[in-house]
Amino acid sequence: MLRNTIKCTQSSPKYRLNNTIRTFMNYQPQLNSAAAPSVLFTVQDTARVITLNRPKKLNALDTKMSESMFKTLNEFAKSSTTNLIILKSSNQPRSFCAGGDVATVATNNLNKEFAKSIKFFTDEYSLNFQLATYLKPIVTFMDGITMGGGVGLSIHTPFRIATQNTKWAMPEMDIGFFPDVGSTFALPRIVTLANSNSQMALYLCLTGEIINGADAYMLGLASHYVSSENLNALQKRLGEISPPFNNDSQSSYFFEMVNESINEFVSPLPKDYVFKYSNEKLNVIEVCFNLSKNGTIEDIIDNLNQYEGPVEGKIFAQEIKTKILTKSPSSLQICLRLMQENSRDHIESAIKRDLYTAANMCMNQDSLVEFSEATKHKLIDKQKIPYPWTKKEQLFVSQLTSITSPKPSLPISLLRNTSNVTWTQYPYHSKYQLPTEQEIAAYIEKRTNDDTSVKVTENEVIDHFANAIPSRRGKLGIQSLCQLVCERKCEEVNDGLRWK
C-alpha cells in the first residue's frame, strides 16, 4: 500500500521580481451581482487571471464562456506584458468546472437545433486545442469538482494544481456520450501507473471513476499538489515573476521559473494517505484493459471474468465489470475506438476527431446512440435511476468509423488560434509531473542492459528521479512512487533490480 512519507521542502527559485507590483483587480462586487459575467478576466501583476464565474451551475461551460476565453487567450498570447495565465474558479473549493453544459446541448438536439450544439462543441474543443498548444505557461487551479469539460480545461496545461478538494472524473458514459475534450489523447501520455498500453487511461474513461486530489497527483493527472489555503499566495507569487529577458515568456527557462515558484507552495499529501489502488488492483487494470490486446468491449469483459489472481483482484475485477455494464453500450464502444485512434495521433487530429464524434452523436442520423435522451433523463428530468439503455447491440466497425469521422455534408473545423502548431507529445508535461512507470522502466533497463554486471538498487532509482532531473529535484511523492513501481514491477537478482 502506498503511504505518503515525504514532506515538502521549500525551494528557493532564482527569479527577478517586477520593479513595479500592481494591485490585483478586485472583482468581488461583480461576483455578487446578478449581471456578473460568467468568466472574469483580471490582472495579477504580469499574470492574467481567468476566473470561471458560473457558480450556480458549478461553472459548467456554455458556448459564451468558451468563446470569450478563446478570444481573450488569443489576445493574451500577443501581449508583451502578459507572462503567464492562471485559470481558476470563483466557486473554489466547491468546483473548478463540473463539465460542459450538456443539458442545454441535449435540449437543442431534441428540438433539432443541431447548429447550436455543434457551435458549442466547436468553441469548447477549439479552446482545448488552444490550451494544449499555448506558448506561454498556463497554471490551472483544480480546486474542487474537475470533471468532463473541467478536465479539458486543465489536462492540456503544463501546470495542473490539485488540492485536497479536487474531485476528478470523466463521467460521460453515464449520459451516453464519450470521454471528449482530448482526454483520450492526454491520458495515454501522462498517467503514471499501470499505463504502458493505456490501461489506466482506458479504465478511467470507461468507468468514470472519481479520483481525489492526492491520487490525481500520484497518477499524473495533476503536476503539483497544493493546499487550497495556499492558492491565493501562490497566485500572488506567480504574478511577481518575470522572464530574465524581455518578451521571453515562451522560453523553457521561464517555464522552469514558474515550476520553481509553484514548488515553494506545495503541500504534504494528507496525513496517513493511502493510494487508491493497491498493487493487486493495479495488476487487474494492467491485465484487463491493455489497449493493444482488446479489440472490443467484450474482450475487456471477458478479461475481467477470467482474471486469475488473489481474491482481492478477483473481487475488484467483478466490481469493475458490474460498473461498466451500467454504462451506455454504444458509448463504451465509441470510447474504445477513440482511445485506439487518439492514443497514437497528434493533438490537432485527436481533438478534431472528438469534434466530429460529438457532432455526429448530436445529430444521431443512424439512431445508434442515446446521448440526448439519456442526458435529459439524468440532468433535466433529474431521474435517480440509471437510464434504461436500448441500444445494446455490438456496433459494426463501419458504424464506429461513421460516428468518429467527418461527414462531407457537415463541414466543421476547429477555430484557428495564434500558435497554429501541433505535436504528438506534450512539450512540458513530463518535466513537471511525477515520472511514469515507463520512464522508470527505461532507466532500469538501460542500466542493466548496457552492462549485465551492473546492480541497480531501489535507492539508486529514487536518487536518479529525485535528483538527476532539475525540474523534478526534491519533488513531493517521488520516493513513494518509485518504491511502488519497483515493488510491483521489478524482481531482485544478485542484490539488484531487474525489470520483470
Features:
500 residues, alpha/beta, 6-stranded mixed β-sheet, 4-stranded mixed β-sheet, 44% helix, disordered N terminus, 3-hydroxyisobutyryl-CoA hydrolase activity, EC 3.1.2.4, 3-hydroxyisobutyryl-CoA hydrolase
Description:
This is 3-hydroxyisobutyryl-CoA hydrolase. It catalyses: 3-hydroxy-2-methylpropanoyl-CoA + H2O = 3-hydroxy-2-methylpropanoate + CoA + H(+). Keywords: Hydrolase. Helix content is 44%, strand content 10%. Strand 2 and strand 3 form a beta hairpin. The radius of gyration is 23 Å and the shape is globular. The chain contains 21 helices and 14 strands. Residues 1-29 have low confidence and may be disordered. The strands form 4 sheets. A 6-stranded mixed sheet has the order 2-3-4-6-8-11, with helices on both faces.
DSSP strand tally: 14
Please list the strands of the largest sheet in the order they lie side by side.
2-3-4-6-8-11
Low-confidence sequence ranges:
1-29
State the separation between the terminal residues, measured CA to CA. 20 Å
What is the count of helical runs? 21
Average of pLDDT: 91
Which helices and strands occur, and which strands form pairs?
Blueprint: E1 16-17, H1 28-31, E2 39-44, E3 47-52, H2 63-78, E4 84-89, E5 95-97, H3 102-110, H4 114-132, E6 138-142, E7 145-147, H5 149-154, E8 159-162, E9 167-169, H6 183-190, H7 199-207, E10 211-212, H8 213-218, E11 224-225, H9 231-240, E12 241-242, H10 252-263, H11 279-288, H12 297-305, H13 311-324, H14 329-342, H15 347-363, H16 371-380, H17 397-403, H18 429-432, H19 437-450, H20 458-468, H21 478-489, E13 490-493, E14 496-499
Parallel strand pairs: 3-4, 4-6, 5-7, 6-8, 7-9, 8-11
Antiparallel strand pairs: 1-12, 2-3, 9-10, 13-14
